Amino acid sequence: MELRHLRYFVTLAEELHFGRAAERLHIAQPPLSQQIRQLEGELGFELFYRTKRKVQLTEAGQVFLSEVQQIMRQLQQAIQVGRQTSRGEIGQLVVGFVSSAAYNILPTILQTFRSCVPGVSIELHELTTDQQLEWLREGRMDVGLLRPPVEENKFSCETIFQESLMVALPEAHLLASQFNVCLTSLANEPFILFPRILAPGLYDLIISLCQQAGFSPKVAQEAIQMQTIVSLVAAEMGVAIVPASLQNLQRIGVVYKTLQEPTPKVAIAMIWRKNETSPTALRLVEIVKQAAQQW
Predict the structure, then answer these.
(1) Structure pTM?
(2) Mean pLDDT by 10 residues, the chain (295 residues)
(3) Residue 137 near residue 274 (C-beta atoms within 8 A)
(4) DSSP of 143-156, one letter per residue?
(5) How far is CA 183 from CA 2, 154, 189, in A?
(6) DSSP secondary structure code for residue 197 in this structure
(7) Which residues have CB under 8 Å from 278's CB, separation 6+?
């Protein structure tokens, strides 16, 4: 039994006329009659009563038609799902992001992706840069948003967003009233910083800026997440140099000031496996790349 036998049967059951059914199927009437006879022979029961004047479904034929129609509907659904999957339009993705991405590009990415591909669900995980690399190696994550650089050549990595650095100060700090802050004025301040292993690129950039200003920062407290660093600044535990988008956190007790010294841009990059075959993951990569051109 082949799929065409079922298609011929359904068409004839709908028309109850060999001539009209053959015309719809774009075949001659004798081959249609032959195919129906073959199907009945394989099934072991008659599907149609045939007379010179009319064709009518048998009782078994009526039951068989109902089941076959259900099969055909399921087949069409399977074809549709397969096509959508091949285009990356349905499925599930696991996406990692550094905490600061939540205050700049992540909301836009999610909104854009959802409007383009509403059938894909995204499972989000807030992870540090080193955690994202580990998850990618283990196959636990599809796409990440992290702080470059990434040295491993098994991953594709593309910068999608850049921003300046600012200094976060307690609201009551003596420098809080200034329009901008000179780095050298922070030489004796306690700094709040994250451990280097979490994002070596950003860490080294902050340390290098301070050293260029003539001092090494005195790290009084370490914290893993950016929002924790800002909270500790609000608690007057120290000062911090942070990406400019952290202003969107709007934490009470903290003020953000630009630096007088020119500072290099800090980046967020999108990362995924070079051998990635998932159409859904590749669709997200494509959409983010297009969106990044507008930022």
Answers:
(1) 0.72
(2) 90 93 93 93 94 90 94 87 75 92 93 90 93 94 94 93 96 94 96 92 93 95 92 96 90 94 92 92 93 86
(3) no
(4) EEEEPSP---TTEE
(5) 77, 38, 10
(6) G
(7) 88, 91, 142
